[in-house]
Structures are given as C-alpha cells and as structure tokens.
Design goal:
By secondary structure, this protein is of the alpha+beta class. It contains 6 helices and 17 strands. The strands form 4 sheets. Strands 16-15-14-13-17 form a 5-stranded antiparallel sheet, covered by helices on one side.
C-alpha cells in the first residue's frame, strides 16, 4: 500500500513539473520577434523533452503495443493541457506537440517514440527507441521522421535509418540530415553515416544493405535552370558505406554529377583506360571552389541510344565534349573528353523513361 501511494505521489509530482514547463513555454508569444525568445525557449525545450521522456518511460511499462502507448501518452498529455497545434500559425506555438509511436515489422522488439515539439517556424523532435521497457537509443533533431529498419542478419545485427528535415528557407529549400546506424544483437548502436543534403523535396527508404534517396537540387545547366531530381544509393561493403548507381537518370545529368563530384568519386564512373586525361579535364572544368556549371547540350551518337555526347561550355572558353556510354538502365560511364565535336551525333530530345527509383517522384516543395 505504501509503495503504491509513493508511486502515485511520484507520478503526480512529475505531471506537475511537466505542466509547469508547458505553461512557461505557452507564456511566450511570437511578437514582437517572429521567432520568439529563442535564448529562453531553447533551455526550456531541453527540460521539456527530458520530462516527456520520463513520461514515456513510465507509460511504456504498462503499454506494450504501439497503439496502446500512443493512446496512453495522448490521454496523459490532454489531462495536463498539452495538445497539438490547432492552426497553421499559432500565436503561442511553444509547448504544443504531437506524438508518434511506431513499431516496425522488420524489428518488432523495438519501439520508437517521437515527440514533435512545435517551434515558431518548424518542429523539433525528441526520438527515443525502447526495447521492452529499456531505452536503447535517443536523438533530437528538426522534424525527425519515424526511423526505418532492416531485418536482423545472421549475427542479430540490423540497420536503422533516420531522416531529419529542418525549417524551410526563403527559397523553399531545407536541410535534410540523413543518418544510418548499425545495432548489434545486444542493441548497442554505432553511427557510421551522417550527412546533410540541401533539398526542395525528397523521399528516402532503407534497403537490406543501405538506403536510397531522391531529392530536388539546383541544376548546373544554365540553359535549363530550375531543379532536377537527384538520386542517391548507398550500399554497405565491409565496414564502408559507399555510393553506388544510379547517380543520375540520363547522360546529361550524369555529366553534371560527374563534374560536381571530387575526383576520388568521379574516377569510379570513369573509363579506367583514360583516367589521366579525364582527371586533367575534371580539374579544368571546375572552378577554385569545385563548382561545375555552365551550358550543356546532349546528342545521341550510337544505335539504340547507348552512346551520348554532352557538350559543356562556360561561355568564356571553348566547349568540352564528353563521351558517355550507357551501360545499364541508369548506369553510365564517362569514356572520353575532347575539344573536338564528334561527327554523326544527333540532338537528343530526352529525357528517356521513368526517372525515379520509387513508385513515383517526390513532390517539389
């Protein structure tokens, strides 16, 4: 009886602390600054996330399923007065939040709990992974999506992928932070990939030995302008995660990508019998900061559109003609680079075929 009373007292005290933090956050308006008092909000949010995690840790013991835990969390938060945003732009956004609880079919022994905290112009997420009632992982970031998992291998280890997209900038872009972790059979995690992409719309999915990502990035082709869909695929080979095909969906975009890569990467998609010459051209076409941009023109040079010539010009020097061989559906190899245009090629009307690794392309934001 005494233990039960102590537990109730402890629970009431934690709820009171959480309610107090929520009321403090709700006391701040966005005005006069459109971002609010960030120097005050930031430490309060850290306290808030700690208290929310304490609430989840208490409720996960009595709520083994994802649906049951989500319902219990939302009921407790409503009782305290905490609720999701009710309008697109709340005058008092701080403290408002939504809850996600997910259990992936690939890893049923782990449960992901995500608290999405409303900010002035974005969302900050507190992510916690539980196994049973034990916390095995946590991370904070801007709007983290529910993590994706692979199935366990023969040793019991598996991969977890997280993606965090921040607030939109003035031009509609955002930073996309992608992280890949490996968990061993004892659920100890090791992060071995962490990279930020600049995006205007994306989709991402874990694969058995890596992940794939598509996002919209700025064109290097001044004649096209705008944005192009940019594919990324990574595979785990030994202890290293390396980029694999496709790196582009057509020969035109392939040359753009080849020129934007550091040489160590570009060499992997270059003819091994012509590396010295291609490296020289690679250094020539990029500026001092590594930027590769100008005007691109595509021609088809071989039967069945397997050989392409991509003319590149920056406007202040002579054009460079890149000869590209298509070796697969979306696989390309840079064969040659010359100042002399190849005869017998015809203008390409492209693009050709489906341009996405997914069921459909992502939406442009």
């Amino acid at each position: 009886m005494r233990a039960c009373l102590l537990a109730l007292f402890f629970t009431a005290a934690l709820d009171a602390q959480l309610a107090e933090t929520f009321q403090k956050l709700q006391s701040f308006k966005l005005e006069p600054s459109p971002y609010g008092p960030l120097e005050t909000i930031t430490p309060l949010n850290e306290t808030y996330k700690r208290q929310l995690r304490e609430l989840a840790e208490r409720l996960v013991k009595a709520s083994p399923s994802a649906a049951a835990l989500k319902a219990a969390l939302e009921k407790e938060l409503r009782a305290i007065g905490i609720h999701p945003p009710r309008a697109e732009q709340e005058p008092r956004p701080y403290g408002l939040l939504s809850v996600e609880v997910a259990r992936a079919t690939e890893q049923p022994r782990v449960l992901a709990v995500l608290f999405h905290l409303n900010l002035a112009h974005g969302t900050n997420t507190a992510l916690t992974i539980y196994s049973g009632t034990r916390e095995v992982f946590r991370d904070d970031g801007d709007h983290i999506a529910p993590p994706q998992f692979t199935r366990s291998d023969a040793s019991g280890s598996f991969l977890m992928l997280t993606a965090s997209d921040g607030e939109l900038s003035a031009n509609g872009g955002y930073g996309l932070i992608v992280r890949l972790y490996r968990f061993d059979a004892q659920l100890r995690s090791n992060k071995f990939f962490d990279k930020e992409y600049s995006s205007h719309g994306h989709q991402i999915a874990i694969e058995p030995n890596g992940f794939k990502l598509e996002d919209f990035v700025m064109e290097s082709d001044a004649m096209r302008g705008g944005y192009r869909l940019h594919p990324f695929r990574y595979e785990l080979r030994g202890a290293r995660l390396i980029r694999v095909e496709p790196i582009a969906f057509d020969a035109h975009d392939f040359v753009e990508e080849w020129g934007e890569m550091p040489w160590e990467e570009a060499a992997r998609w270059s003819d091994t019998g012509n590396l010295a010459k291609l490296r020289e051209v690679h250094e020539k076409v990029r500026d001092a900061d590594g930027y590769f941009g100008g005007e691109f023109r595509a021609k088809v040079c071989g039967p069945q559109t397997r050989i392409w010539e991509i003319a590149f010009s920056r406007g202040f020097d002579g054009p460079v003609y890149f000869l590209v061989e298509q070796t697969g559906r979306w696989n390309f190899l840079l064969k040659e680079a010359s100042s002399i245009e190849r005869k017998g090629c015809v203008w390409d009307e492209g693009p050709h075929g489906t341009r996405t690794m997914f069921a459909k392309p992502p939406e442009f934001r």
